[in-house]
Amino acid sequence: MMPMAFELSDSVTLLFDFWDVRGPAGMVLSVFVVFLLTVFYEILKVWRVWLGVKHKLAQHESRYGPAMSSRCDNSSVLENSPSESSLTPIDPPSPGPHRFSLLMHITQTILHLMQVSLGYLLMLCVMTYNFWVFLGVIGGSTLGYFISFPLLEQI
């Protein structure tokens, strides 16, 4: 039976039967892999927002010209985040080329699929109730946020 409280053990099975950790060396390697996956998860979140903002600016520029696009540069990052953009109405499609919009939509969909899948896998790692794995996820999330979110200010 799985533990229902955090434990300081060096043996755990992560996600799949073949990822059976036994011993300190295996635990250190597994925590490092989970750490890197979590950093990638945070970078993936920022990349999706960055692509969405760049696409929106490109659409705005194609509609109104480069002079009016400077007004979009002052919008807050929160308005363009995936959680907020899913709650706000979507602008009607422009009469311009739809191929670029379709390609961007497919790209955003694939990135969303990767982000959700990786998020659930990391959640399942934490649900092993192994303290070291939990620290790997928390540390990776902290480092990933520290590295990637300041990049949003450069948009």
Automatic annotation (TrEMBL):
<keyword id="KW-1133">Transmembrane helix</keyword>
<dbReference type="Pfam" id="PF04145">
    <property type="entry name" value="Ctr"/>
</dbReference>
<feature type="region of interest" description="Disordered">
    <location>
        <begin position="67"/>
        <end position="92"/>
    </location>
</feature>
<dbReference type="GO" id="GO:0031902">
    <property type="term" value="C:late endosome membrane"/>
</dbReference>
<comment type="similarity">
    <text>Belongs to the copper transporter (Ctr) (TC 1.A.56) family. SLC31A subfamily.</text>
</comment>
<dbReference type="InterPro" id="IPR007274">
    <property type="entry name" value="Cop_transporter"/>
</dbReference>
<dbReference type="GO" id="GO:0005375">
    <property type="term" value="F:copper ion transmembrane transporter activity"/>
</dbReference>
<keyword id="KW-0812">Transmembrane</keyword>
<keyword id="KW-0813">Transport</keyword>
<feature type="compositionally biased region" description="Low complexity">
    <location>
        <begin position="74"/>
        <end position="87"/>
    </location>
</feature>
<keyword id="KW-0472">Membrane</keyword>
<keyword id="KW-0406">Ion transport</keyword>
<keyword id="KW-0187">Copper transport</keyword>
<protein>
    <recommendedName>
        <fullName>Copper transport protein</fullName>
    </recommendedName>
</protein>
<feature type="transmembrane region" description="Helical">
    <location>
        <begin position="25"/>
        <end position="44"/>
    </location>
</feature>
<keyword id="KW-0186">Copper</keyword>
